[in-house]
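To: structure desk
From: M.T.
Subject: fold request, one chain
Message: Could you run this one when you get a chance? Sequence is below, nothing fancy, just the single chain.
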Amino acid sequence: MKTIYLAGGCFWGSEKYFESLKGVISTEVGYANGNTANPAYHDLKEGKATHAESVKVVYDENVISLNKLIEHLFRFIDPFAIDHQGEDYGHQYRTGIFYEDEESGRIAETFVKAKEKEAGRKLSLKVEPLKNYYPAEDYHQKYLDKNPTGYCHVNLHLIKPEEKK
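Reply: Done. Structure tokens follow.
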């Protein structure tokens, strides 16, 4: 199993999207690459913590590749938006790929550079080593399962039937 941390705006919809994919073993929402230990949601909203809302994705690389996971991320984000996705605005809604191992970092960097070349301009999405990660509060975990009509900027219909669990 491999692990990657993906920031695609509000983590509720991102988690629901990734947990629906074949090859994804587990997901967890949390706060990545910020300035403080153990931040709470209100710390991000108030600007006291600089973490990105992220989804920890544990996946079976024999079923789904990291390239494919990143391709899925790009299906529902605006990679040029700075500090927002959908109707959510704030530094915590920035996009990013945070990795634990160098191989994953190389794969992510190569993917992003190809997207930049294709677009003819730099993306705002950051690829960085994972500096820290803290699970979000329990009420954020599997939020859209608990609140099916909750807000979600992610179009869950972008997942093709053959890609679903």
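Reply (cont.): The mean pLDDT is 96. Let me know if you need anything else for the meeting.
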